């Protein structure tokens, strides 16, 4: 008897480092601006001079706690900072102030939509969220490839920029799920306003822990860590590559080595970097220069009440209350700026479905084409709502709306004024339309004859002719009604 081939399952967890969007660093008053001249945002505290004392930036604590609350975490009644010792040229103090055994938040969860079926959702456990400082940045020069660098420059502007590290439970099972988790996490942090989540600038960095095991096996396989992915697509591809690599190693009877691997985006593969060191190597001990953190219930309640509507709740409301499709909901809620523009348009009187259509179609296309953001547009939600109301009220046609939209996007102004200027008002005067219809019937005797002969599908042809004659401005509903009456009369005459 031959046994069936083994089916494997991947077990994936993410460690995400996210820079908090505070004006100053976590333990000193230095600025955190990205892209400044190297080593201009430094001081004795973040450079680790002897005798200096760190002071916790209260905004960092507030942002970390709000992130913890938004991730349904327990907030620690007592928390503290620890020193994580290691030597590296980007770390001037030779230790990083982080949190070890008493993180500020723990045991939470994040709801993501299932990439295979967006109608379904899945809860991913959050093990912990802790605060720490970022390290500086090394710039390798002299050669294009890191291995061939002839010198390295150190920029300490980033040393001491506040971070939260968010560790997920190993609840993810595929590259697509992991990418969705990372995107949802970024959405939550952006909605909260605690981070810009910009991956290109390194504000959001994900490390992946991944192992595979035969389906049904309870114990985990040997895990490998992957670093260096700077897009959601890279996260997905790196995981998919690594799943294949580990399965094929196991099937050939090779052992998986516990190691750190780098994702090489150009070669689309993971490469071994180093064998993983354990946490005991860091010789953690409590940071003696910072007092433990004890949060009062009052401040905690205040921060909890500050939380905005989060992405998952917004998605549910858009579908269940506003009646939008899963697709529209996803496009509108992906970016808080877009969601707010949509909600302001609806608040100004536009029906939700029509507002969603204009934003997800014509306006999105314009933004993509011109590489702009909503904030760059001259169009306001009020003007969009006014334009939609003109269409819904039959004052202008949908086509006329599309005609004035480019002006509204680039120059702003009032849709009513533009309609008047361009003479786009819909023709809904029955007498005017009757005249046009009479002319259309006279000008197309062959089609009229066929219609009389029973080819009633030609109604659409006549509607098209009326539209053509009026430059698309004829009220479609009224045109249909009047044409039916005129054609019925013509048939009765024959
Ligand atoms: Zn400083």
Q: Percent of residues in helical segments?
A: 25-40%
Low-confidence stretches: none
Distance between the termini: 84 Å
Strand tally? 16
State the major sheet: 9 strands, mixed
Q: Return Rg in Å.
A: 31 Å
Quickly describe the structure.
With 494 residues, this protein is an alpha+beta fold. 39% of the residues lie in helices and 21% in strands. The termini are far apart.
Description:
By secondary structure, this protein is of the alpha+beta class. It folds into 3 domains: 8-298, no CATH class; 309-422, no CATH class; 430-493, Arc Repressor Mutant, subunit A. The protein is 39% helix and 21% strand. It has 15 helices and 16 strands. The protein has helices at 58-70, 175-192, 232-251, 297-306, 311-320, 326-333, 336-347, 352-370, 381-392, 398-411, 415-422, 430-443, 445-452, 459-469, 476-493, and strands at 8-19, 74-75, 78-79, 82-85, 95-98, 105-114, 117-133, 137-141, 151-155, 162-168, 204-214, 224-229, 259-264, 269-275, 285-286, 293-294. It has a 9-stranded mixed beta sheet. Strands 5-4-15 form a 3-stranded antiparallel beta sheet, with no helix packed on it. Strand 13 and strand 14 (269-275) form a beta hairpin. Helix 5 (311-320) packs antiparallel against helix 6 (326-333) and helix 7 (336-347) packs across helix 9. The chain is elongated. The termini are far apart. The model has no long low-confidence stretch (mean pLDDT 92). The site of zinc ion (ZN) has 8 residues, from loops.
């Amino acid at each position: 008897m031959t046994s069936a081939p083994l089916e494997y399952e991947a077990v994936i967890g993410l460690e995400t480092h996210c820079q908090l969007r505070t004006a100053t660093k976590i333990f000193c008053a230095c600025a955190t601006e990205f892209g400044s001249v190297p080593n201009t945002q430094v001081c004795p505290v973040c450079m680790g001079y002897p005798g200096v004392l760190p002071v916790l930036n209260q905004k960092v604590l507030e942002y970390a706690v709000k992130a913890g609350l938004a991730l349904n975490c327990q907030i620690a009644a007592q928390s503290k900072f620890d020193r994580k010792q290691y030597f590296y040229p980007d770390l001037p103090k030779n230790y990083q102030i982080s949190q070890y055994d008493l993180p500020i938040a723990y045991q939470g969860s994040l709801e993501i939509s299932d990439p295979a079926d967006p109608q379904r959702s899945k809860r991913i456990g959050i093990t912990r969220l802790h605060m720490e400082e970022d390290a500086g940045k090394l710039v390798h020069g002299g050669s294009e490839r890191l291995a061939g660098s002839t010198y390295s420059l150190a920029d300490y502007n980033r040393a001491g920029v506040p971070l939260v590290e968010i560790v997920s439970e190993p609840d993810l099972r595929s590259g697509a799920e992991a990418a969705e988790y990372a995107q949802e996490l970024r959405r939550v942090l952006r909605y909260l306003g605690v981070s810009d989540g910009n991956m290109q600038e390194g504000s959001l960095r994900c490390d992946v822990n991944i192992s595979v095991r035969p389906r049904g096996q309870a114990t985990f396989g040997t895990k490998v860590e992957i670093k260096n992915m700077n897009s959601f697509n890279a996260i997905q591809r790196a995981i998919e590559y690594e799943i294949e690599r580990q399965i094929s190693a196991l099937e050939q009877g090779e052992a998986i080595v516990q190691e750190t691997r780098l994702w090489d985006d150009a070669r689309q593969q993971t490469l071994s970097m180093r064998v993983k060191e354990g946490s005991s190597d860091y010789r953690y001990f409590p940071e003696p220069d910072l007092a433990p953190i004890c949060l009062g219930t009052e401040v905690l309640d205040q921060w909890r009440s500050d939380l905005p509507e989060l992405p998952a709740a917004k998605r549910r409301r858009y579908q269940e209350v506003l009646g939008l499709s899963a697709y529209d909901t996803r496009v509108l809620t992906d970016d808080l700026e877009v969601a707010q523009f949509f909600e302001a348009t609806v608040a100004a009187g536009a029906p939700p479905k029509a507002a969603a259509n204009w934003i997800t179609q014509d306006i999105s296309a314009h933004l993509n084409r011109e590489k702009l953001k909503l904030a760059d547009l001259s169009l306001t939600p009020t003007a969009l709502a006014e334009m939609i109301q003109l269409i819904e009220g039959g004052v202008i046609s949908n086509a006329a709306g599309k005609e004035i939209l480019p002006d509204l996007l680039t120059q702003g102004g009032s849709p009513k004024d533009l309609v008047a200027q361009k003479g786009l008002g819909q023709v809904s005067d029955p007498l005017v339309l009757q005249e046009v219809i009479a002319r259309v019937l006279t000008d197309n005797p062959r089609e009229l004859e066929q219609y009389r002969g029973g080819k009633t599908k030609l109604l659409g042809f006549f509607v098209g002719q009326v539209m053509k004659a009026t430059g698309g401005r004829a009220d479609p509903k009224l045109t249909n009604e009047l044409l039916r009456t005129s054609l019925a009369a013509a048939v009765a005459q024959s």
